[in-house]
Amino acid sequence: MTYCCPHSQSASKLFSVFAKRFHRHYIRHGFDPSQQQLLAGLAQTGVQGASILDIGCGVGYLHQTLLEQGAQQATGIDLAQQMLIEAQTLAAQRGLSGRVHYLEGDFIELAAKISPADITVLDKVVCCYPDANILVHQSLAKTQRVYALTYPRDRWFTRLGVRLIAAIMWTLRSAFRSYVHDPKQIEIWISHAGFHKHYEARTIVWITQIFVKP
After folding, report:
1. What is the tally of structural domains in the chain?
2. Are strands 143-152 and 73-78 parallel, antiparallel or unpaired?
3. Would 1 be classed as within a structural domain?
4. Is residue 200 domain-resident?
5. 108-127 pLDDT, tens digit each
6. What is the DSSP string of the chain?
7. Do the Cβ atoms of 178 and 128 come closer than 8 Å?
8. Which residues touch 64 (CB under 8 Å, ≥6 apart)?
9. Residue 195: which CATH number?
10. 17 in a domain, yes or no?
């Protein structure tokens, strides 16, 4: 798999390193608070029979849980090959292999090949893209009913955390960076695409929002 830019290449390498750790953490501890909020919001919209597009799916436990809750099928996309290997293993263990399809690569590069889904999920993905505009608009174009995302709140300590991560990545000679994008602008993009906000919850660091198309 090739990627369009050094940032995507570095993200692939970085997240592959942590794939097994993410898998073990989920097995031992389950969902983190923001993911629990995401699932609670999606439950309000109804997932029965839905198709799921999980962008930046990681090791797959979020969309796999939605399948167990009644969704019909899911497509998971991730930059990191090792993340998808872990996701396939976890799907097999849960008896879901026949209902999931995984694609390795940058969603922006793959978007033209991806079919629209009832529900699109971006859990802590917007913060990994330098250009949130392109990511949000292209993922909205693939969303038929529900758009769900979790991303950093624009607060002084999240901006400080991003700067610290950048310093660490520079030390490691990695091109990967994380970003704090303007929540107000993100909401404007989503509402202009015909969605209205159905649910919102926050932790100290993260904001989780669910948007529904009437």
Report:
1. 1
2. unpaired
3. no
4. yes
5. 999 999 999 999 999 999 98
6. ---SSHHHHHHHHHHHHTHHHHHHHHHHH---HHHHHHHHHHHHH--TT-EEEEET-TTSHHHHHHHHTT--EEEEEES-HHHHHHHHHHHHHTT-GGGEEEEES-HHHHGGGPPPEEEEEEES-GGG-S-HHHHHHHHHTTEEEEEEEEEE---HHHHHHHHHHHHHHHHTT---------HHHHHHHHHHTT-EEEEEEE-SSEEEEEEE--
7. yes
8. 74, 87, 90, 91, 94, 96, 100
9. 3.40.50.150
10. yes
The yes-or-no verdict on residue 1 having pLDDT over 70 is no
pLDDT per position as a tens digit, 138-188: 999 999 999 999 999 988 888 888 788 778 767 867 777 778 889 999 999
Output the six-digit token pair for 209: 């929002």
Residue 194 clears pLDDT 90, i.e. is over it: yes
Q: Crossing angle of helices 81-93/19-29, nearest 10°?
A: 30
Q: Report CA Rg, the chain.
A: 16
Widest distance between CA atoms in the chain: 47
Domain containing 36 equals: 6-212
